[in-house]
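Researcher: Before we compare anything, I want clean individual predictions. No alignment, no superposition, just each chain on its own. First chain goes here; please echo the sequence and then give the structure tokens.
Model: Echoing the first chain and its structure:
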Amino acid sequence: MEAAFVDDIEGDVAFGLEEVNAVLAGLVTVHAQRRRRDAEILAARLGVTGEPPQTLAAIGARFDLARDRVRQLHTRTVGQILRETHLGGAERAVFAERYPLDARDSALVGRLLAETYATDADLAANELAFLKLRLAGHTAEDAKRVAGYVMQRIMGWQKKTNRRLAALHDEPAATAALDVLWPRVDWPEPGRQPAPLPSASARVVDADDDQRGRFYLDKVGRDVGFDSALRARLLLTLNAGEQVRTFQEEPMAISYRFGEQTHLHHPGVAAELVDGRVVLIDVQPLGHVGFEINRVKAAAAREHAHANAWGVLIWTGSRTGVAELRDRTVDAELEQQLTELVAAGPVRQAVLRELHHEAGLELLDLAALTLRHGWRWDRMTFTISAAA
């Protein structure tokens, strides 16, 4: 099993990283009070709601703006936030601890790359790296240089992917990885014939966007696009696994409601197995599966998959799946303490931070308890509350 998940993200899921994201979300929320549209553009680009970052083209389609205009508004908004933000001591420490001013470039690049992979955030890696470093106190010149190194590494990996494909085309390892995943599939009631795979991707606005990576996969006989290394790893595994006959990336657009708005979600891939069954596989990084928005999306994907007589699976990028995370062992006293706090009202970031430092609460503990007790985890505000 270890060999099957050589790029397991579990070790990079950290409480400190989620605190960074929570502070970023807070800054976006404050900016929304003055410029709501610009803040929504920034949130979509950086992925601060808990969803993956969106391409400039997709954001432009949503707001009826040209791609270059979206880039301009994003850059302007980041500049305004940096000029107007005065982080308190605790918030500044969140960034300073993760991106120290005296750290070598190589160390910063390594951490930022690991964070990018663990959060499925390749599309916005440059913007996120720059903003994180500036908020940690790095100069604009240093932040731009290090963020550039991060993007060079990502772009270099994308360009080398086709050459690396031969080395990664390891059927025994892929089969072992899939052997771990298949027992996690939530299959519908037996007896119905599964609907056929769609013949094309439902993602049309930015399917050929140059921010996305592409590689040729022989199992489908064409180039396939991907947004991140985490998603590429899934596609490579399906391409090499002997249990999979074929697959279609982003096969459908699923409508779901979150808050007062209706959104569209494109699950990662639908795979047809050699026995004729079909499974819809959605990508949710391990540290994100507890977020309320992702749980709503997962429920919508499950309903849609079962209506098609398909199974459904969440790819977490880890040997730990959703069920294993829900069953994670958490200190009984800590669980009881947090349960009582949630019962008394929403538990906010400051309290969670205190539990982390004083009682050893880790991010995966928090995710496990959220899933186990059915709590609501709002990523934008980093609050845990009882289910409505």
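Researcher: Okay. Second chain, same rules.
Model: Second chain and its structure:
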Amino acid sequence: MKAKCHINAMGVVCCAGENVDDFYNNVFSHNTSLFTENNELSSGRLKKVGKIKFPLPDFPHSQKQFLTRTNHLAFAAIKQFENAVEDVKSRYEPSRIGVIAGTCTAGSSEVDYSRRYEDEHGHIPEGYDYSLDFMDNVSEFIKIYLDIKGPAISVSTACTSSGKAIAMAKRYVEQGFLDAVIVGGSDSFALTTLNGFDSLSALSASDCQPFSADRDGINLGEGAAFFLVSREQSNITLLGAGESSDGYHMSSPHPEGIGAEEAVRQSLSQAGLEPKDIAYINMHGTGTEANDSMESTLVNRVFGADIPCSTIKNIVGHTLGAASAVELCLCIAVLKKGKDQFRIIPQYRHYDMDPKLPKINLAAQNQYCTGSIFLSTSYAFGGSNCSLVVGLEK
């Protein structure tokens, strides 16, 4: 019998919360925008972003060579379950514990600083290390900080990065390659990223409105979420993980969601489930014209028009490579806090859905379900698709 991949601990940080409970409470109680205005765009336009405004825990001085905004966010998340990691280290061979981290920006915030400094002084800051912007910098920092001896892998597949990292961790655990994995994703706010999305006319003029007729793009955010996964029994199981890469277009999804559907059906098949077994779908839901059209088409075709679904990107913004992990963390928090009934994550600031889109059931406030199996999806540039199925074992 194949071993199961259980989620034993988790931590999260984003503009909606500095830990799991804070995140959960804010999602279900906030009725005002958490976004702040940013005026740093090259175009001079004002845009709203999901930037973290509370102080992060002090970064370990012993690891100062790894200090980037992205690593600082990762540290804030893993620090929340550091004791659980130490417990696992006391029982497993050090080489049998690994780190897999998803990221898009890595040290891009520090690159922004270096460029500004060079513009002002004619040279880059003394001692600036270009390796801070390498993708493997994130996983390497976590490995060294936690004193883990197994593999350290970074995954960078745009907005599916942490989802694909989680899928990889699931395979490693279930196939017996590793006994435990610290897995998740971290991405920080960076001007390079912000200006890139602005050049695509993909940024919302205000708070984004996914699936609305008035939708006009995304709000970027920053955050990190990490998990400790292993074969050790817990009440939360990662049941399925589906991946595909359809390569339809560099920055647009296949309009019918062909590759996305392959990832969704793969995750259901791996979990031994049918679409009717899913109680709630956390959608990618960016608020762009192309994504929302594709995704509503996909959900309607595979699941029908009744299953409750929503997106939290109009609460936390699009946290890029961390998005899959941040959103899965919230799904798990909902499952852990329920027993016989589970809260449905509402479509924040509910509005009328675009009547031109295929019908889906955008969740309203104060909805509950009895099913304890949730699906969370992420889609990325280049046709990268990821679907995760998580369930509560009662």
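Researcher: What stands out in the second chain?
Model: Residues 289-303 form the longest helix (15 residues). Additionally, The mean pLDDT is 92.
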